[in-house]
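Quick log. Single chain, no ligands specified.
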Amino acid sequence: MPFLAAALLAQVALAPLVAQTPLRLTYLGNMGVLLEHAGKRVVIDGFHRGALADYASVPPTILTALESAAEPYRRIDLALTTHRHLDHFDHRAVAARLAADSTIVYLAARETVDSLVARSAVSARDPRIRAVVPPNGGAADLTLNGVAVRVLDLPHNATPTATVANVGFIVDLGGIRVLHVGDANPDRDRYRGHRLNADPVDVAVLPYWYFLGRNRAALLAAIPARHYVASHIGPTDTTKVSSELAGAIDNLTLLLSPGAVVELAGTR
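-> predicted structure:
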């Protein structure tokens, strides 16, 4: 067992495993994913139009179906956005989906929602739109369209430009809990504050750099999960990152090809 996996298992006792239908994860592009389980479908960071060439865009055939609520993406219960950077969010894509779909609910940080409303015809009074500002270092709990979501205060990684409001999400799909952190700062103390060790998630979708560097074991020990998913891998970086992460940790899936589907076995 690689040293990192051993370090994680030494610090968290996982509950006994119980057979369960798999979580189906479709990679949409960059950090965009579609999660399906227990009759619920949730998209996180999947509504963007490839405005930044360095990051994987959502393929046109997938994006068109997502925006127009066409098959196989006709029904989506909940769409979430971690922050408003263009490799995670495009106001035109979100507005198109809202115009085509009367039942979807959209949840994002207030700053992101403000950007959507200011730059599109979407009304701030639309009951399908939910803006959230979790307390500093804390979390906010909501249930939307039958999906329980915990919104975590996880500030964005340091950037040369003005910092945007980044939030993380823990989505509960029929007892399988998925963490998605967007571009959160890989600060282990921030994660310790959310006490994820007390109730580990089943799947953690993290930027690939969380699995690199000398501090990775300590960081991931604060984010215990049964399955890890490495995302935000640029199209020109797939070979390099795949090589760097080969054998780094057990139960690690790399998101490399938009449109790919991964099934992660249920464990609770």
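Residues 91-100 form the longest helix (10 residues).
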